[in-house]
């Protein structure tokens, strides 16, 4: 079962955390995951993916403008409707707005008809409400949470799409 982690990055933090989410997804049996920066996406892989997660650096308590441009101008080319969707962010400050950036992406994924998911508090600790946020000075400390998030997203996608 194919899954994808898309991201935009300027200084590498969001790329690093995308790879950790992909690692968590791939720990679920039968899941193959690939990560793509927005400018080198394998279109067929995304179209065949049952779960697509999108990550952004937090810019001014929101997504990076590159994410907004991709959502407005390119996302509709990838048959996102009906797939499990999620979002994550990296940021500088704990109150810097990472969750708002995630919410912004989730709203857009819903508009495309995706089945937006995170697991929420229903799955217990670590509690991940809308999606995971990593602070740039503590990326390593947050790796387990991102791995868990990837595993949760993949497990739900397998449950929903298994034949
Ligand atoms: C233009 C700009 C605006 C930013 N605004 C915020 C912000 O509002 N809140 C915050 O916590 N971090 C902010 N940051 C920090 C980035 O979110 C953080 O460094 C992030 O991890 C960078 O990700 P990247 O390495 O993938 O580019 C900003 C960075 C830039 C360049």
What is the compact description of this entry?
By secondary structure, this protein is α/β, with parallel strands linked by helices.
Q: Can you offer a commentary on this structure?
A:
The protein has a single domain (2-161), classed as Rossmann fold (3-Layer(aba) Sandwich). The protein has helices at 13-26, 43-48, 65-73, 98-111, 139-161, and strands at 2-7, 32-37, 51-57, 84-91, 115-116, 133-135. With 163 residues, the protein is α/β, with parallel strands linked by helices. Strands 1, 2, 3, 4, 5 and 6 form a six-stranded parallel β-sheet that branches. Bound molecules: flavin mononucleotide. Residues 9-14, 57-61, 90-93, 96-97, 136 line the site of flavin mononucleotide (FMN).
Number of helices: 5
Number of domains: 1
Global Rg: 14 Å
Mean pLDDT across all amino acids: 97
**What is the general shape?**
globular
User: Which class best fits the helix and strand makeup?
Assistant: alpha/beta
The total beta strand count reads 6
CATH superfamily, by name, is Flavodoxin domain
The distinct ligands, each listed once, are: flavin mononucleotide
> Can you tell me the CATH class?
Alpha Beta
